[in-house]
UniProtKB/TrEMBL annotation:
The protein, known as: Phenylalanine--tRNA ligase alpha subunit
Encoding gene, per UniProt annotation: pheS
Record's subunit section: Tetramer of two alpha and two beta subunits.
Subcellular location: Cytoplasm
Taxonomic source organism: Tumebacillus permanentifrigoris
Cofactor note: Binds 2 magnesium ions per tetramer.
Signal sequence region: none
Coiled coil: 65-92
Length: 354
């Protein structure tokens, strides 16, 4: 049996040398070291050996197995190294080539404009306050001097969830909530009157508007509210003139036209001189020289009273603007739907503007 083992070792090592692939040496391993391999076949004959020979032959079997496994391991390492070197050569990166530029996006124009508007009003001493988009009918309408069944609700037809829950039509509910919270705080602290307010409230609002070039069922709005003693219409105009010149340029002028809103009295539409013609008249402004930018007015006494403010002591002004309309005017965009169609080509136009 010793001669068989020595012969097997020499034959196996001789057969291993010409093998030229991992698959070939794996087949070699199965042939000589597998469960049905030649070394295992020799081991089955150990039962015929005497008790004195078995330990000696057993040790020899282990030595032969170790020698074959060592030879197999060295051969396997050679093939794996060669395969790894080949793969590295094939996948090598030519670092002398110029790098490929990564496409960098730009901030959405609406977000940019909202941030700019917030910066302007923060500089004027305002505070930014946000509120829920799903709102109670009371805060959205009734607290804004629009009771149930009032015809003014038709101007802001919206999406109802229940009779008392709806998708807000404006960010005015934030104003009602802030005034109510200030009044409650004053009562809790034993104050005679609530504290003054100077806030803006940006956010998304919803209305059943026609989906055309200038309307959308969901859009961004920013409203402002100032409540204090001795607030006048001139304060409103001065604030809006400052805002318009910061957004559209120092040469811009504003004018106020009488209008109607149920939560302000008097109410006004605010126009700015046309960005295209500078006020001389063109097709963009339909020859008038003016373009409407927002609605505003003095806070209605009923709104103050509903919120817990004494209208004989306090007065205030409020204004509201559609961010999309302002962005269209500022950036020269003709269709409001472009803000929401996820076309990166539109966004790319703002990389150099922002």
């Amino acid at each position: 049996m010793r001669e068989q083992l020595y012969s097997l070792k020499e034959q196996a090592l001789t057969d291993l040398q010409p093998q030229d692939s991992l698959q070939a040496i794996n087949d070699w391993k199965v042939k000589y070291l597998g469960k049905k391999g030649e070394l295992t076949a020799i081991l089955r004959g150990m039962g015929a050996l005497s008790a004195e020979e078995r330990p000696v032959v057993g040790q020899l079997v282990n030595d032969v197995r170790d020698a074959l496994e060592l030879a197999y391991g060295e051969k396997e390492a050679e093939f794996k190294k060669a395969e790894r070197n080949k793969r590295l050569a094939e996948e090598a990166i030519d670092v002398s080539l110029p790098g490929r530029a990564i496409s960098v996006g730009s901030e959405h124009p609406l977000n940019q404009l909202i941030r700019d508007i917030e910066d302007i009003f923060l500089g004027l001493g305002f505070t930014v306050v946000e509120g829920p988009e799903v709102e109670y009918d009371y805060f959205n309408f009734e607290a804004m001097n629009v009771p149930k069944n009032h015809p003014a609700r038709d101007m802001q037809d919206t999406f109802y969830i229940t009779e008392e829950l709806l998708m807000r039509t404006q960010t005015s509910p934030v104003q009602a909530r802030v005034m109510g919270a200030k009044s409650a705080e004053a009562r809790a602290n034993g104050q005679e009157h609530p504290d003054p307010i100077r806030i803006i409230s940006p956010g998304r609002v919803y209305r059943r508007d026609d989906d055309d070039a200038t309307h959308s069922h969901a859009f961004m709005q920013i409203e402002g509210l100032v409540v204090d003693r001795n607030i006048r219409m001139s304060d409103l105009k001065g604030t809006l003139l400052t805002f318009a010149r910061q957004i559209f340029g120092e040469s811009v002028q504003v004018r106020l036209r009488p209008s109607y809103f149920p939560f302000t009295e008097p109410s006004t539409e605010v126009d700015a001189t046309c960005h295209n013609c500078g006020g001389t008249g063109c097709r963009t402004c339909k020859g008038t020289g003016w373009i409407e930018i927002l609605g505003a007015g003095m806070v209605h006494p009923s709104v103050l009273e509903l919120a817990g403010y004494d209208p004989t002591v306090f007065s205030g002004f409020a204004f509201g603007m559609g961010v999309e309309r302002t962005a269209m005017r500022r950036y020269g965009i003709e269709d409001i739907r472009g803000f929401y169609q996820n076309d990166v080509r539109l966004m790319q136009n703002f990389k150099s503007r922002m």
